[in-house]
Amino acid sequence: MKIIDCGYGHDESLLDAILQLPTFAHVATLSKAGPRHSPVWFLWEDGAVWIIANEKDTLWKRIRDDPRAAIGIVDFKLPAGRVRHVGMRGAATVQSWDRARAARLLSRYLGPDQSRWEDRFKFALDDNSNRWIRFEAETVVVRDQSYSFSRT
């Protein structure tokens, strides 16, 4: 993974900090009908972005047909003036289901107590139609474009 400096610096600790947040990743893929975009929950683990995909959805099929993809993640907090961005370009693969990894991903967003999760998320852990998308970045852009402002 090559971090590209676009004039905003390329602090690897900022990359890890943003990727640890439970934000949405926006995945761009290609299809026969043109480009597609999917907002997803994700897990940053083992140097890859992991995304849950289901056989009923088309994301995993698009990746299977053309592994090229791009991912954008934005950490935006208006009251704090925080705007931090990670942009990744690379390739993805479809992987077999790993229940333990799914529990780690869902816990990021829903909390560690599975008894408090909605049933649809509990059932997802054992859904055999789920697949993993494993995205490996070839290039990464990390930007902190935060600002301060006066509320007068």
Characterization of this structure:
The structure is a single chain. By secondary structure, the chain is of the alpha+beta class. Helices cover 22% and strands 43% of the residues. The protein contains four helices and eight strands. It has helices at residues 12-19, 59-65, 99-110, 119-124, and strands at residues 2-4, 25-31, 34-40, 43-45, 48-54, 68-77, 82-95, 130-144. Strands 1, 2, 3, 4, 5, 6, 7 and 8 form an eight-stranded mixed β-sheet that branches. A hairpin with a 4-residue loop joins β6 and β7 (82-95). The protein starts with a strand and ends in an 8-residue tail after the last strand. The mean pLDDT is 91.
Summarize the structure.
With 152 residues, the chain is an alpha+beta fold. The chain contains four helices and eight strands; from the N terminus they run E-H-E-E-E-E-H-E-E-H-H-E.
H-E string: EHEEEEHEEHHE
Radius of gyration from the alpha-carbon trace, in angstroms:
17 Å
Assign an overall shape: globular
Number of strands: 8
Low-pLDDT segments: none
